[in-house]
Amino acid sequence: MIPDWKLERFLLGDLPELDMMQIRFEESQDDILRARINSLKESNQEILSKYPFEKMNARFQTIVDKKKNRNLLFYAPMVAAAIILVAFIPFYAPEIASLWQSPATVEIIEYAEDGTRIKGLSLNLEVWKKTSDSAEKLVEKSIVKAGDELQLRYSVPSKCYGMIFSLDGNGKVTALLAEENSSVALEAGKIKLLPYAYKLDDAPHFEKFFLVVSNEAFDLDVSQLDSLLNSKKVQVVTFIIQKEITSEGK
Amino acid sequence: MMKSLKKEKFELIYQQYMPMVLRRCRFLLKNEEEAFDVAQDVFIRILSKQDSLDLEAPSSLLWNSATRLCLNRIRNKTRRDLNRPTEDLLCQIACVRDERDDYEHQYLLSKLFQSEPASSRTIAVLHFIDGMTFEETARNVGLTVGQVRYRLNTLQKKLKSMEEK
Question: Which domain, by its residues, includes A233?
Fold first, then answer.
């Protein structure tokens, strides 16, 4: 027996042509099937005369309009509040308004070797390698090896929040200046030395240091490193050093 | 007011499909007033979203939407314990918790008649009540036969655990 759903679609002409032909053939042979189809056709007329389109359409339209109005009433206070916020925040809460400025800007002040401030210094990160009796300032892509002791210095042009971390050739991220994974308040004024030296392990290929600063506090989520570094709210300087290739090939 | 072209299109859909939708609701709900309410709801959804809908051949989607709305109605009534027997299969299917329901409900309006995710409960009615084969059910809800089998197996397990409780 042909199920009801299939007959419905047959009446609508919504079946594949092969099925349509098959049912047409059966209809011509089967009185019961023909009666079922006729009954559906009569039901169609009954339904459309009981619920005619013009009457129903007016009803549908009223319900849809009511829903739209309800939505408008629902959203209107929120829209009004948003407009007021946008209009008045710059006057009453400039610190919030400053969040919309991008990228984050910090005043640039430069330092002389003796630590005195000179206008124009950019955000700065230096890497020094400890030698037997002194220290050597490294340049980008200097060759270092496991066991070398490094010391980092940084300067920021104005008071801000910042963090220093390193990324090694194994993909390991190590926070060097941070409170757990959160940025710390950095003082402008002099070149600062990290309170401890950094001993290189045997991670291969490279060690890259990041100094990240922002006008507002931020957190380091290693899984979201790229989004932090690409954020318009932060400024970043990096320093990369290469690892000496050892006899094991690292 | 609706523009005339939209009204014409909507009228065509209504004239063509309202009888099928209402019959579907009558069959599942066994109550003319409730059936009319649900059928009306189906068309109100079309009217609200007709610009974004693909209504070229909507019979299976209208059928499935009417089915789902009826199942919701049956489930709500059963929860309120309004003289609803719970031993029949349709009622049991309606009362099964389907994680996709929330998702479906949330996205119903925007996805209706496009690529709405099929509820396992709707699939169960198409297969167990309407007598569609796995292949026909899969075609109707836009899934593979394997996916339909998996959904039905999961739902049957839930039905069984409901019975045991």
Answer: 109-243
